[in-house]
User: What shape does this take?
Amino acid sequence: MPIIRVALNVPVDTLFDYQADDASERDIGLRACVPFGNKRVTGIIVTVCTKTQVPVDKVKTAYHIFREINPLTPALLELFQFCSQYYHYPLGMITMNSLPALLRNNKAVKLKDAAQTRWILTDLGKQIEINSIPARNRVARRLLSEFQIASALTRSQIKQISQRAIQLITVWLQLGWIVEMAAKAMPQSTERIPELTTEQVAAVSAVISDFAQFQTWLLHGITGSGKTEVYLRLIAYALAQDKQALVLIPEINLTPQLVAIFSARFPDVLLINLHSGCNDSERLTGWIRAQRDEAKIILGTRLAVFTPMPNLGLIIVDEEHDSSFKQQDGLRYSARDLAIFRARQSNIPVILGSATPSLETYFNATTHRYRYLRLTTRAVQNATLPDILCIDTRHHKMLDGFTEPLLKALEKCLTDKHQSLVFINRRGYAPVLLCKSCLWTAHCHRCSSRLVVHLKNRKLSCHHCGHQENFPLACPKCGNQDIVPFGHGTQRIEETLTTHFPSARILRIDRDSTRRKNAWQEILHAIHTQQVDILVGTQLLAKGHDFPNLSLVGILNADHSLYSTDFRASERLFAQLMQVSGRAGRANIPGQVLIQTEFPDHPLYHALRQHDYTALAQTLLAERKIAGFPPYVYQAILRAEAHNLETALDFLQQAKNLAPPLQAIELFDPVPAHFLRLKGMERAHLLIQSRSRKHLQSFLNDWYPKIYTLPHRKTRWMLDVDPIEP
Ligand code: ADP
Ligand code: ZN
Ligand code: ZN
Assistant: This one.
């Protein structure tokens, strides 16, 4: 009796064995509905075998194997296995959570919209004679003759023959009688395709000359240097070879713009956009089309790295430095790193693109682990980089957060009918409620963070746990009634601007104003059609957008990140300011960037004024080398949270006591986390690092199962491999 070993969405790192009399090797990668406890659950068949360790009388029988869609490819199963080993996370949870929600439940999937799939006979299939099929298999005979007549059949045509005929498709695919006819991939575009700059040509031809094998490329191009055009050419090359391309982009709202660009360039190609806004059935359809090789271009945020793509030929990770490629809960994977794994697995090139590469990537490029491509000039003729100037706030009086020179510059922009952008650095900073007489500030009672002021609805809200409350009428500590919002969040900045420029059309962009569906499209439309004079916003605005009429960027509160306890804060601030500066002066309007700061002589601002990524990267790398931080070491963090800090610390100490002998490993002491309290829990962590990834991994392999043996009823714990947050 065949045994199927199934990956289930349960928090134990093991597969579950079931009897399934109709199972065979070719069911590997299919979904199976099985009994688990007293429930019916669905999992993925990882192996089919004949033996099990489970006593015969205990082995349960699977209810059903779903065969209506193709099984997961071996490559994808291998990717899950790698994830499970590397991130020390249960295989079943990885597998199930990477699937579209509709594949995780006990129902067969119904594809509303699969008309596009067509099957044709293979050379082998064409040799089959009707008479070789037993006459009692009427449906099979009928299906074969339909194929011989029509040459290509769609699902609905096959359904008309009979329901049983659909089931035959899976079998015939396995037998190699038929194949799916790939969607036509002949790029034909009416859009004007620009002639490449010399640097773009060099980049494109370097990658193409090495296209048939695994290689990681860093495409380091300043903002506006035309990285997208390089991607487009490489994708065209992949499509011409009938290959699929996977394009990963950060978790922000760049997709509408990119989708528009890609679809205009490749109008005949099925492009799937997998982002967090997709509903379940959109995600399922996209996923299946990618798996069937109908979709040729998959564009998506980090989860898209798990899309099945049997014919993958190229991977692009745009804005590779972006922290949203790293998932911050559950399976803490880095989609960028997994993209590299997939490229190696498929023996294809992967392009990491950025204007400000992460230091890890830059380090790998300069030490020749990756190949390094540079674009140093802007692609559009005459477009130059903006002038970046610092306004020393020690010498200029602040007026509601603005200095005189910045207000003047904004005014000039208005007169010239150009757009401007006021960028607020929010990292480690938020407008708080402050009592000027006793210096009391409003804190969240559930976590240790300060509450953020939202003037519009006169609420205080916690940006860490979501808690909200009303403004107090007076200071709870000293009774003073004159408590004021301190600092300048986006709303307050907007108010100040309204007062100063009553006729200006001001648009605020933040998480709140972009939450609605299509909000981004409307915002971008407003910007592009000149319905906006001044944009106000945070990180969200910094990335990738192309605003041709924007000529001034004002930057507020950047200093907060200069002296942070997080060793990555400078790197991030620099990347952000480079990105946001890159918004200015993209087309024919020269741009200017004004930074309000108390520390104009800081090396970071120096490098920024010179547009010199390399100078800063080298400075930061030198610092990290001395301090022994990544990329010179590899890290993992064991995180624990409990109702009180003692419990969390105690758990970590016990875990530390269980550590196997250290081989080239540094194991630190448990410490309270930076944001101590989160959602009513207190958090602590324990850092492990090593100069060798291999040593780190083998240490974790030994240690991890031991941690499981600890009683942890009162503690929630998790391991974060290659953490990017302290
Ligand atoms: P990046 O992503 O590197 O910041 P983009 O890809 O957004 O830059 O390109 C910036 C602008 O330059 C876009 O408007 C794009 O259409 C244009 N562009 C790109 N390549 C060329 C080229 N070879 N000739 C003319 N314009 C180009
Ligand atoms: Zn007070
Ligand atoms: Zn809170």
